[in-house]
Design brief:
By secondary structure, the chain is an alpha+beta fold. It is built from 3 helices and 5 strands; from the N terminus they run ααβββββα.
């Protein structure tokens, strides 16, 4: 039994000496190498991007112009004058056209970074027994036909002071979307003519 214990201890000691020698060799080889120390660290590529310089300065979430809004469409985008920037998260032409198109309604909330415009209830003077509300969603940074979505709500007066939801023709939202797109194209055309 004593013999077995001595053999196990000597194997452990030998393994320890071998590992120590290997660590010493690794340290010596590393010390002799001509390693270049990196003075700058990668910030990483933007999400979804697989090529490029990971050391490059990343763009600000507010764009080149900061928090300012450039109605001329001169901000960053896919091409000069395409309305993809100006410090907002959505296409500036669609944003401006949406605000212009629904200007007759009171705006309850407008988020240029998320591209959401929510109006308050609006009662037309011609029909005081009904009211309308709209939500406009701008879905991207490019001026495309599917870049805007409108939800329209209608309520009618019950006569007792309460309002109840009422149906709306299905093409109402589509007509408003078309009006916004036409206005956005007009704004882009005017900017490119300058």
């Amino acid at each position: 039994m004593m013999m077995k214990c001595v053999v196990v201890k000597s194997r452990r000691a030998a393994a320890g000496r071998v590992l120590g020698a290997m660590a010493l060799c690794a340290a010596l080889v590393t010390g002799c190498s001509d390693a270049k120390v990196e003075g700058e660290y990668p910030t990483g590529l933007p999400s979804g991007q697989t090529q490029g310089n990971p050391y490059a300065q990343r763009d600000s979430i507010f764009g080149e112009g900061g928090l300012g809004y450039d109605f001329s469409g001169g901000g960053r985008g896919d091409a000069p004058g395409d309305g993809g920037g100006g410090g907002i998260g959505v296409n500036s032409f669609l944003w401006r056209a949406s605000l212009d198109t629904i200007a007759f309604m009171p705006v309850n909330s407008a988020d240029p970074f998320g591209g959401v415009i929510i109006t308050d209830w609006y009662t037309p003077p011609e029909t005081p027994d009904e009211r309308f509300k709209m939500n406009v969603y701008i879905l991207g940074r490019s001026l495309r036909a599917d870049g805007v979505k409108v939800a329209v709500f209608r309520q009618v007066d019950e006569g007792t002071g309460g309002w109840r939801d009422a149906p709306l023709p299905s093409e109402t939202a589509t007509k408003i979307e078309d009006a916004i797109l036409s206005k956005a194209r007009q704004l882009r055309f005017e900017v490119r003519q300058e």
